[in-house]
Structure formats: C-alpha cells, structure tokens
Amino acid sequence: MRVWAHAGQEAERSTLESQVRRINEADLPFGVELTFIPERSYNAQVQAAALAGDLPDVLEFDGPYLSNYVWQGHLRPLGSLLSQETRQELIPSIVDQGTIGGKLYGVGTFDSGLGIYARKSLLTVAGVRIPNGPDDAWSSEEFKGALERLAKDDSDGAVLDLKLNYPPEWFTYAFSPLIQSAGADLIERPGYERSGGILDSPRSVGALKQFQSWLQKGYVDPNIDDAAFTQSRVALSWAGHWEFQRYHEAFDNDLIILPLPDLGHGSRTGQGSWVWGVTRNNPSNAAAAGFLEYLLLPEEILAMTAANGAVPATYSAIEGSMRYREGGPLNLFARQLTEGFAFPRPQTPAYPVITSAFNQAVQEIRNGKDVRTALSDAAAVIDQDIADNKGYPMPDEH
Amino acid sequence: MKRVLGGISLLLVSLIYLAPVLFMFIGSLKPDADVLVQAGSWRALWPDTASLENYRNVIARVPFGRYLFNSLFITVAIVAGGLLVNSLAGYAFSRLQFRGRNLLFAVVLALMIIPLEAIAVPLFYQVTLFGWRDTYIVQIIPFIANAFSIYLFYTYFLGLPKELEESARIDGAGVLHTFFLIIAPNALPAFASVAILTFLTQWGAFLWPLMVTSGDAVRPLPLAIATFHSLPPLQWGDIFAFGVMMVAPVILVFIVFQRWFVRGVVATGIKG
Amino acid sequence: MATGTCSKRSLPTGLLLSAPALLGLLLFVAVPFTLAFLLSFTNLRLGSPLPLEWVGWEQYRRIFSDPAFLRAIANNSLFALFVVPLQTTAALVLALLLNRALGAVKLFRTLFFLPVVFPLSLVAIVWMLILAPGPNGMMNAAMESLSLGAWESRDFLRDPDWALPAIMLTSIWQGVGFQMVILLAGLQAIPRELYESAAIDGAGRGRQFLHITLPQLRNTLIFVMLVTTMLAFRLFDQVQIMTQGGPLRATTTVMFEAVQAAFTRQQVAKGAAMTVALFGIVLIITWIQRRITREDREIA
Fold it and tell me: A364, C263: Cβ pair inside 8 Å?
C-alpha cells in the first residue's frame, strides 16, 4: 500500500517513519510504502499525480484542500473504515474539518493551535491584564491599550510579532479568525456561494482596519530572522503551537499563551492541519483502515504530537498529554478546539482561490492599501471563480 | 601613475561588487545569530568567529550530496545530449542538401523565440500525462533539443571552409565520419559556446524543477536551496553554507576552464 | 551553399542527422506551444470534474482587464526600461576600464564574471539578507554611512516604491558580468589602427569613444541589449523567492502571474493565456530586433 505524507519537521518525519516501520514489522496482511513530499508544492504534486492516475492509496493533505479533492472525486468516504469507538474519540475540530456533506473524508491525528505568546513579566510591568482562557480574551480596546503600554517600555516601539515572514497560507490561517471574531467571514456558510457582502462587510473592514493600524503605528516587528520574540525584541508573538518548544526554551515559565483578541463576537482561532484520506485508487479498505486505526491509537497520537507539539486529535490523547491536559501549558489550544472557538477554513473547492485572494488582500492592507477596496477586490475574485465553476456542484454519487 | 590609479579604482569597484559574495562566504563560517546582527557593519566581511559548524548542520539537515549529484547529472546529461543532437542538426542544415531543408530550418528559427516560460504550463500537463513527473527524464529530455544551439552551430559551420569536407569525401569517408573527425574538431569554439550557455542556463534551472519534482530524490540545487530557505527555523549561517557548497564546484570549474568560458560567451555575442 | 554534389544520397542523411533535434523541438516546444494556444480558449481548471468548454476570447478579455496582469506587464516593461540601459552602461564602463587594465585583465574579468555562475535562486536569497530592513541590513547600513547618516533605513522588499528597484539591482548585479565579457571581447576586436590614426588626426579620448568605439561595438551592444530585454520579460525566480509579487503587486510579473494562476489557483487556461501573451511580447521584441539589424545591414 502506497502512502504519501508531507515532509514536515524532522522529528515529525522520523516519528511517522518509525510508526510505518512498526506497522511493517507487525506481520499484518499489508505493507506500507511511505513517500515524503515537500510541503510547498504539495497540492500541485497531488494534482499532477491525479492527472497521471498515479495517486497513492492513502494520502496526507492539508485540511483546507479536503473539499477540493472530494469535488474532484479523488477521495472515498471513511464511513465504514473507522470503528465507532475511534470516531467518537475525535475532537470536534477534527470532525468538522474532515466532514463534507455529512460524510467524513479525512481524519487528522493532530490539530493546530493558534494564540498569542507573551512574557508574563513584561505584561505585569506594563500593567496589562492577563486573560484567563478563550472566553476571557482581551477586547479590541484592551489589546490596543496593551500594545500602547508595552510600546512605551520598548526601545523601538515594535512589540508585536505577527510572523510576517511566513508563507502566504499563514495569513489566511492566522488572520481570518480576526474577521470571524468581528462577526464576518471569508465567505457565506454553509452554502459557500457568495463572498461579496461578507468578506467586504463593514465588520470585516473594521477588523482589518484595526490590523492595519497596528502596523501603521509601528507596533509590529517585520521578523525577517524569525527571532523577534526569542531575542526579546517583542513582548507578544501571534503564532502557532509549533513555536512552543523554542519559546519555552528561551523563557521557561515566563512564557504564557493567550487567546487572540475578541473583536466583539468572541475570540476566534485558527484550526486545521494535515489529515489523512483514502483515495479512489485504493483497492484494499482493510489495509487503509488498519493503517489509520493504528495512527489513531492514543499512544501513537501522543508519539506524533510529542514530536511536532500539535494538539492531539482525540479526547483520550489530550488527557494523556502533559502539555495539553487541564493545567498543562498548552491547555488553551485544546480548549479552543474542543469548546467551539475555531471554524475550519472554508470547505469548498474554491478554497485555493479564496486563500490566494484573501492573503493578497492582507498583504495589500499591510502595505497601506484602503481596506474596503482590498477586500472588495478579493471578494470579487472569489465570486468570479465560484461563478466560473457553476457553484462547484458536489458530485452526489457518494 | 594614471594606470596605478585606474588599477586601484578598479580594485575598489570590484571589492564593492563582490561584497555579496564575500558576505556569503564569511557568513557561512559564523554562528547563525551573528550573520544578521553583523550584516550592517564591517564585521560582516570579517570572519572573527570562524567554524565549519554551519556546513556540518547543512549536511545533517538535508541530503546535500544527493542534490549536488542531481544537479550535476541533469546538467551534464543536457549539455552532452544537446551538443550531439544540436550540432548534428546544425551540420545538416548548413552543409547538407535535402528536400524541405529550408522550410524546416525556418521552423527552427521561429521556435527559437518561444521561451520555456511560454510553454511551461502545457508542457507540464504533457509530461505529467507521459508519467514523467518527478524523474530525471522530465528534467533532461525536453531540454536537449534547442533551437538556439542549432542556430549557433549552423552559423559556425557555415563559416568553415568547404575544402574540409571535400578532402574527406575524396578519402571516401561517410557523413558521420566526416562530421566527427573533420568538422567537429574544427568547431571547438562553437561546442564550447553551446556547452557553456547550456550549462549556465540549466545549472540555475528553477521554474521547471519547481513544477515537476516533488521528492528530494531528483531535486536539483537551485530548488533545494529555495526550499531549504523556506524550511523553519530560518538559519542564515546554514543557508550561506549551503550556498557556498553549491557554487564552489562551479567556481572551480569556471576558474580552470576560464579561457573556454570566455571564448564561448564571446562566440555567442559575436554571432548573435 | 548548395554544391549539387550530394543531391540524392544525402536526402535521407540530412533529415536523419537533424531528426533527433527536430523531434525534440516538435514534442517539447511546438506541441506544447500549440497546446498553450488551444488551452487559452478553454475553461480548463486543473483536476476539475466539470466538462471542458470552449470559451473563445474570454480568458484574454479577463487577463487584459485584470489589474494584476496589467501591473505585471507594466512591471516587466519598467524592469526592461531601467535594467537594459543601466546594466549595459555598467557593463560597458567595466569593459572599458578592464580593457585598459592590461596585465590584470584576467583577474578582474574573473572577479566580475563570478556572479554569473551563481544560480538566480541563490542570488535572490543572498540579496534578501543584504536588503534586510533596519540598520542591520547591509544595504541600509551602506547607504547610511554614504549619506553621512541622512539615510532613513527602510524595508526595501516590502516598500512598494523600493521593491522593484531592489530586484532590478539584484538582477543587474548577477547579469552585468556576462555582458561585460561580451563587450570586452568586442572592444578587443576593434583594430588598434583606428585609434592610432584618430590620435594622429588630433581626436581626444571622448571623440575616439564616440566615433570609433561606439560604432564598432554597435552590433555587440544591440545583441546584448536585446538578450537582456528578453530576459526582462521572463523575470520569475527573483520575484518568486524575494517578494512573491508584492508589496501591492509592485513586483509581480507576467510569469509570476501565470504560475500563480495555473498552479496556485489551478486556473490552467488563464495561465496559458498569460503565457501566450508573453509569447506575443517576445515576438514583438524579436521583430524590432530584426528591423534594427536589417537597417544596420543596409547602412553597412
């Protein structure tokens, strides 16, 4: 059985390699042949392989592409493959992300966490309130005040790291929660038929105007060396779970993690990560099921999340994780995902166009373009694409 | 006096001009944290804390030897294949008579102006359908036949004296024999020119491998360094070490074969 | 060149010898180009289950009303407009300096040619750090000491006014050595006697340059400038690595837009239309080249 996975960080890769080795040594009726594909061109690779009729049996892919692959008919529903017990263990964000039209097509062994990393000592000195959980986030006024006060104590006034050095997808992942928190979204849900009037609604414009003002006031470090936080140039870093290890090594117990600011409709966060799916090329359901069930065993999930630091995908694995269980330093990320603070990125085949249009708009806003114009342009591009594809009718054969 | 001044100013200009190269070489010997911090001062060009740590890191983090082999193999295959195939075609068009020759040559000239970029998208579709994705073949075969190389050979062969072949023909030598033993040895500058231009173009190939390769197995250096650069954590010392390892072999080749490099480049310029 | 001696026998030989090259060109240039042309009239989307439709000129209508694509063409043109004269002038100045350096010619030629063997992707990465924002950036620091502190440090690659010039500088740095070597050879091919007799006639350095050097170098200069112009319209690597077309599309190019459309957004037909447009531009440049060189022949 052929399996494709993304070439993530080294620890992640070697964990998966040893999992596969254990499966192959376990005298099961199937063997697994694992290939790593670089992240940057992953989707293009999948498309090319599909074009050549050369997809593997089991495919890992980035969550937001799920609906695209379902629409293209590459994936099988996992329905009968996973046992009832396994499915019940999955946390809500994993189920949401993997479900299209009521059917589960993809399942991840971990999910991502997004928040604001901060130094407790700096916040205390500046007299900034420390929020107590996802439902206790800073309001937008408080966040602005915090930036102002922190900037006063800072040599260059840049106190916030937004990971501006990251690749394009980051901007959709990290900043769409901002407009969702203001009560807007990238596109209308759940029909996914229209972006105009939503992405460029006054709420959305207001949210990104705040974002723009942080940049214009000089609060944001460009972070070109990816060391703004670790070198103490900034007090706050808007970042994902993957930074915990590095930040923790730098600041130990002074490091705290806070929810993203609440712009009026509750704090929102990003979610979604790499998930597994079974392609239509796969002749043996039993092998694919065996593989996925194995990866979803609590101890295997924990092995993986110990390697990549991500949020475990099942309740029992979260319980078993020192970091994510209640009282653990990363419990906030687990709570955000299990208590409904995260929406999946739009589950429509239009996603590649949505994310490209949105991050283009964010880049423009970052560079000072009028927020309303930038968002209207993005919405128009998205709506055009939906119209071109006749609304992306989902195949109903499944 | 004037000459000395000219020499000094030239030396100064070349120092400034080569600052980026020095920056890379020296940065590759420094701890990651120092590279960026010192970039704004003269210390960036002074190896105060030299070590080979970054080089060890690169070797540990990525299969550098693999990339190097890939790049060399692909480039050498294209250069060798291209020299053979295009010189034969250039020879046929310049020295042999056959029906349709002028028409065919006109087509070749027309194809010369189509840049790879203009056909990259459908070519990608095409090779994917051939099942060539992520192989050496897909990075080699499409680039062997080259209209511009044919044209360079054509103009060079045209300038060779007729007597060369006539004497060969009197000896009763066949066409291939004549070409390889008589014509080719008299056209070494043309071969050098094509070889070097092809080498420089293919050695730096980025767009095409970006589109058609996925794994480390067949990925060439220019793409590998771009991927390396985007792989967190960002470590400039390592990136520079990667860069040095990547250009050092070519610089050596260039210094050794400098005469031919220059001659090749010159032949292109004059002929074009 | 028809000698008539080899009519029948070499009919298959000539074809045979050129066949491998012709086959390669057919399969990997002619066919994909035809395909690009055909695809640009359809709605092809990578992997779409929707049926392929003929949409006529729709893709072209769209790209030519797409501000991003128009900006891309403008950027490529700006790039050519600045880089071609600047790079050629710099190369010429270097070549003139080197031409008089006598013994040291080889050393300096080696030094200035060095960046040419650097792949563009590596050049782009090294220059990203040189152009880094803040006083830590090498370019910022250099400008500051040159201006005696009057320079206000900036983030070149994220500043809409500076990003394209920064990429231009990077490209000139990498490309100038190649041009210089060609021009140097052109200079060395000019017969000494021309200068000697001019000197006897009392012509100064400036007049010698205008009346001997430039006219003698004309063809070489035209060649060098046209190659650079073509490359300017194919600009991609530096943009992909350094700026991703940003900020505010200040550095987007035709090829960058085409790759974005075809691969990131999977709109293959749109990407194909853009590359066909690129071909049109290259065609026009080539046509101009033919015109200039033809005039040249008439003059000569």
Answer: no
- Is there a single domain that holds both residue A67 and residue A11? yes
* pLDDT computed for residue B171 by the predictor: 73
Residue B9 lies in a domain: no
Right CATH for C32-299 from 3.40.190.10, 2.40.30.10, 1.10.10.10, 1.10.3720.10 = 1.10.3720.10
Percent of all residues in chain A with a pLDDT value above 90, rounded to a whole number? 70
Judgement on whether residues A351 and A321 belong to the same structural domain of the protein:
no
Tell me the average pLDDT across B102-128: 84
CB atoms within 10 A of CB A140: 18
- Is residue B129 domain-resident? yes
Using a CB-CB cut-off of 8 Å, the residues of chain A touching C49 are 71-73, 395
Which positions in chain B touch C39 (Cβ < 8 Å)? 121-122
Residue boundaries of the structural domains of chain C: 32-299
- Together in a domain, B147 and B222: yes
Q: Determine contact, residues C241/C170, Cβ cutoff 8 Å.
A: no
**And the tokens for B82?**
């291209």
CA A99 to chain centre: 16
**One domain, residues A94 and A37:** yes
Query: In this model, does residue C262 exceed pLDDT 80?
Result: yes
In this complex, is the C-beta atom of A363 within 8 Å of any C-beta atom belonging to chain C? yes
CA angle A232, A237, A242 (to 5 degrees): 105
**Closest CB from C50, C160, C266 relative to A367:** C160
Instruction: Count structural domains, chain B.
Output: 2
CB of C244 less than 8 A from some CB of A: yes
Given an 8 Å threshold on Cβ–Cβ distance, is A10 in contact with B61? yes
Q: pLDDT by residue (tens digit) across B216-244?
A: 788 899 988 887 886 666 788 888 999 99
State residue A257 phi and psi, 5-degree precision. Answer: -120, 130
Q: What is d(CA C262, CA C274) in angstroms, rounded to the nearest whole number?
A: 10
Chains contacting B (3 or more CB pairs within 8 Å)? A, C
Identify which of A35, A40, A225 has the shortest CB distance to residue B215: A35
Q: Is the ipTM of this complex over 0.95?
A: no
pLDDT in tens, A221-276: 988 778 899 999 999 999 999 999 999 999 999 999 999 999 999 999 999 999 99
What is the reported pTM? Answer: 0.83
What is the rounded distance in angstroms from the CA atom of residue C66 to the CA atom of residue C78?
18
A264 and A385 part of one domain: yes
User: What chains are in contact with A, requiring at least 3 Cβ pairs below 8 Å?
Assistant: B, C
What is the rounded end-to-end Cα distance, in angstroms, of chain C?
A: 23
| B177 Cβ under 8 Å from any chain A Cβ | no
- The answer on B128 and B40 residing in a single domain is no
- Domain of residue B97, residue span: 63-271
By Cβ distance, the residue of C2, C33, C141 closest to B114 is C33
Considering the domain architecture, whether residues B74 and B27 belong to the same structural domain is answered as: no
B207-216: pLDDT as tens digits? 888 888 876 7
What are the structure tokens assigned to A213, written together? Answer: 């003002």
What range does the domain containing A263 cover? Answer: 113-268+347-398
Using a CB-CB distance cutoff of 8 angstroms, which residues of chain C are in contact with residue B121?
Answer: 36, 39, 258, 262, 268, 271-272, 275
Please indicate, yes or no, whether residues A173 and A58 belong to a single structural domain of this protein. no
User: pLDDT digits over A122-153, tens only?
Assistant: 999 999 999 999 999 999 999 999 999 999 98
Average pLDDT score over chain A: 91
Contact C17 B113 (CB under 8 A): no
Contacts of A366 (CB under 8 A, 6+ apart): A164, A212, A215, C247
